[in-house]
Amino acid sequence: MDVDNRPPHGRTPGVEEYESGAGLLSYTVGLALAILATIASFVVSQTNLLWPPGITVGLVVLAIAQIGVHLVFFLHLGSGPDHTNNILALAFGVLIVFLVIAGSCWIIANLNANMMPIPPQ
Amino acid sequence: MAAAITGAVPAELAGGQGAGPAPTRIVVAYGFWIFIISDIVMFSGLFAAYAVLSGNTAGGPTGPELFNLRNVFIETLCLLLSSYTCGLGALSAEWRRPGRFLIFAALTFVLGAAFLAIEFSEFARMVSEGAGPSRSAFLSAFFTLVGMHGTHVTIGLLWLIYVVAQVVAKGLRPAVLRRLLCFSLFWHALDIIWIGVMTLVYLMGD
């Protein structure tokens, strides 16, 4: 099929227009932001820059920010009409991931709290 | 109901193209996106297992005793840079520059292989120190989660060879470009998983 509708000189027909958003600048900005977020995560985890009990929260926030950077600048997930279905699928995936991870931690923490104390051997 | 009978996609659902179905490229990317989401849901089970079991070291070594954060940082940089070169390779392919595409694909492969080499040497060191997957529930969950990500990277490298072979053999025709698009989606998605691994396993455990 792709042989038949291939015009001369191997160029695509105009049917499949590529998005202009996926440019060199997008990848470069994405890489810079991702490296910045990674360095920030390591600094936060290794120093007392943040209030120590808040380090976990800080790391989660940085991870979510970096995932957002990857989605927008590398995977080119935008708000355009082409992306409506992709965003919906992602939202459903995020819901399931949240339910599985948070639900597991919640349930097992409850089970651990209700365990009978292990007698010293 | 005419739309349902003829199978036509309503214009507002067809990617804003006005009328008719969305371009093949959009449909293929959507289908592959669904696969990536399901893969991430699979990983969420492993993340949940690790989060639950990370404290159960059975008297064995704990995370901070085992992890080498300098190597983790280098691994992260390898993955981020390979994502960047993968994106530049996809751009070169779209701009019909097969030579540049091959250079960026080779860089992507080398950076991915460097990540795997560091990860494998870390695994080998841990096993040789008696901290293998059978030592404790914590280490079982650790090797399953991190090893599953490493398996995905390995599959990605094999897939990259396959895609490059197709570009060489068939040229940058639309069907090959769509396969390349799927590969780059997969490769970028592995980075997202790695951010979770890096944060939950290495940084929070430290």
Strand tally of chain A is 0
Largest sheet of chain A: none
Proportion of residues in helical segments of chain B:
over 70%
Low-confidence runs of at least 5 consecutive residues of chain A: 1-17
N-to-C CA distance of chain B: 59 Å
Count of spatially separate domains of chain B: 1
Tell me which CATH architecture of chain B applies here: Up-down Bundle
Structural Rg of chain A:
23 Å
String of helices and strands of chain A: HHH
User: Which regions of chain B have little confidence, pLDDT < 50, spanning 5+ residues?
Assistant: 1-9
**Strand residues, percent of chain A:** under 5%
As a whole number of angstroms, the C-alpha radius of gyration of chain B is 21 Å
User: Could you spell the SSE succession of chain B in H and E letters?
Assistant: HHHHHHH
Please indicate the count of domains of chain A.
2
Under CATH at level 1, the class of chain B stands as Mainly Alpha
Q: How many distinct helices of chain B?
A: 7
* Biggest interface, CB < 8 A: A-B, 57 and 57 residues
Structure description:
The complex is a heterodimer of chains A (121) and B (206). Chain A has 121 residues and is mainly alpha-helical. Chain A has 2 domains: 1-76, no CATH class; 80-121. Chain A is 60% helix and 0% strand. In chain A, helix 1 (24-46) packs antiparallel against helix 2. Chain A starts with 23 loop residues before the first helix and ends in an 8-residue tail after the last helix. Mean pLDDT of chain A is 83; it is low at 1-17. Chain B is 78% helix and 0% strand. Chain B starts with a helix and ends with a helix. Chain B has one domain (23-203): Four Helix Bundle (Hemerythrin (Met), subunit A). In chain B, helix 4 (69-94) packs antiparallel against helix 5, helix 5 packs antiparallel against helix 6 (137-170) and helix 6 (137-170) packs antiparallel against helix 7 (174-203). With 206 residues, chain B is mainly α. The interface between A and B is large, with 57 and 57 residues.
